[in-house]
Amino acid sequence: MDWPRTWTILSFGYYAVAVVTTLLILRRPRKPQAMLAWILAVLLLPGVGLLLFVMMSEPRRGWHQRRRRRKRKKLRASSALKSDARDEYLATSSAPQDHVGVARLMNLARRLGAYPPTPGNDVIIYHDAEKTFLAIQMAIEAAQSHIHLEYYILQADDTGRAVRDLLIDRAKQGVRCRVLLDYVGCWRLSRRFIKPMRAAGVQVAFALPVIPWRGRWRVNYRNHRKIAIIDGRIGFTGSQNIGDEYLGRLKKFGPWRDTHLKIVGPAVQDLQEVFIEDWHYTTKELLAGDDYYPSSTAAGEHVAQIVPSGPDQVANVMHQLLFAAVAAAGSSISVITPYFSPDEAMILALASASYRGVRVRLIVPSCGDHRVVLWAGRSYYEELTRSGVEIYEHDGAMLHSKVMIVDQAWAMVGSANMDERSFRINFELTTLLYDSNLAGDLHRDFEGLRRQSRTITRQDVANRSFGESILLGLARLASPVL
């Protein structure tokens, strides 16, 4: 075989494909940084860059958006998915809008596809992972009608087996159990683990599968939501997955910190609708019946608004919402996020808020399971600290909470990070809490974490070594495609 000639032909063929790929990138205008990053990856990383582009780039979303929107419209228009009792309840109730900017934020969220704000909820905030897991366990054990779980990750460890065994027990008692898991998040989950659940009658489905031989190459568009719904009356949502590591039981990560919500009241029906839409999109099964939407009655005094976001929506919902929240702040913004890799617009918004006198504070973990994202976030410290933004790195635990508190008057808790993936690609779920008491609880937790964290000063940023600066620069260059 003439190896030099063969190599020349293969090289020519690859670069021809690379040129075509570059033209495709240019034909889909979006952020220049992301476009440039993909072009460089394809040209400078032969083979690897092209494979990464096929699997991880953000493709054209038109067909995906239209298909999912059509299904959502069909579901919401179906009389089977309407709750007259809830509609009547909302018609006779009103959400307080006494804080400046709250009414506008509620309206913005609605126009972006969120559900209407619902009064009459009882919301409990969990900061301790063990207590969260115990509350979910107890709710599952008490289920009488159905159990709906939707998670990004469920591990086949002691914690995962405990949930599995509970579901098997309830299914044997006649409770309808459905579990929706992300295909990539649960790629290590074996058939051996799932088989006992299915044998007992638990329905298990995997969202957005990656099956190359069926043309499903993309690993993007992950379902990052965390939802548990019991009998249509009790809901859990937030940032905690199911596994030993999320309870701080693995030495590799050490203590683990999440923020989760337990909701009882009308907002649970919105969580239910999110699950039913995701389940229908994945399995084609339409869940209908009064059991899924029991009558809505006031369970407390908290106002909550459920905000689903994802690539099936025209606008980048979380990006718009976070940007608006920062712009609406009058005195303070407190943010906890494990993955901080925003775009220039969000950096500008945070810096601008600080310049106009708003106290902006950010807590991020000092170590994490995605080092490149951590480094990319650190590359923005100079701009932020220069504008007066206070940055703290938490050393005591793996900080996995996703929280924003505005003016100590209202807050948001959910699954979305302050990064490009949550802004544009992942299916996320956020709960807006329009209640000063709940915001106060989250603020006190923030203060406790802040006191245990290390302050990042402008001097710290200035004292970076040459090698560290290069590393952070490379991470920022890659951040648009992370």
Topology, pairings included?
Elements: H1 3-27, H2 32-44, H3 48-56, H4 62-77, H5 84-91, H6 102-111, E1 118-126, H7 129-141, E2 146-151, H8 158-172, E3 176-182, H9 191-200, E4 203-207, E5 227-230, E6 234-238, E7 256-257, E8 260-264, H10 267-283, E9 302-309, H11 317-328, E10 332-336, E11 340-341, H12 344-355, E12 359-365, H13 371-378, H14 381-387, E13 390-394, E14 398-399, E15 403-406, E16 410-414, E17 418-419, H15 420-424, E18 428-433, H16 436-451, E19 453-456, H17 458-462, H18 466-478
Parallel strand pairs: 2-3, 3-4, 7-14, 10-12, 11-17, 12-13
Antiparallel strand pairs: 1-8, 1-9, 2-5, 5-6, 6-8, 9-18, 10-15, 13-19, 15-16, 16-18
Helix pairs in contact: 1-2, 2-3, 6-11, 8-9, 11-12, 12-14, 13-18
CATH class of the largest domain: Alpha Beta
Amount of beta strand: 15-25%
Distance between the termini: 41 Å
CATH topology of the largest domain: Endonuclease, Chain A
Which class do the helix and strand fractions yield? alpha/beta
> Mean of the pLDDT scores?
86
Tally of helical segments:
18
Task: Give the CATH superfamily of the largest domain.
Answer: Endonuclease Chain A
**Morphology call:** globular
Strand count:
19
**Second CATH tier, the architecture of the largest domain:** 2-Layer Sandwich
The largest pleated sheet is described as: 15 strands, mixed
Question: How would you portray this structure in words?
Answer:
- This protein is α/β, with parallel strands linked by helices and 482 residues long.
- It has 3 domains: 55 residues; 221 residues, 2-Layer Sandwich (Endonuclease, Chain A); 165 residues, Endonuclease Chain A (Endonuclease, Chain A, 2-Layer Sandwich).
- The protein contains 18 helices and 19 strands.
- A 15-stranded mixed sheet has the order 4-3-2-5-6-8-1-9-18-16-15-10-12-13-19, with helices on both faces. Strands 7-14 form a two-stranded parallel sheet. A two-stranded parallel sheet has the order 11-17.
- Strand 2, helix 8 and strand 3 form a beta-alpha-beta unit.
- Helix 1 runs antiparallel to helix 2, helix 8 runs parallel beside helix 9 and helix 12 runs parallel beside helix 14.
- It is globular.
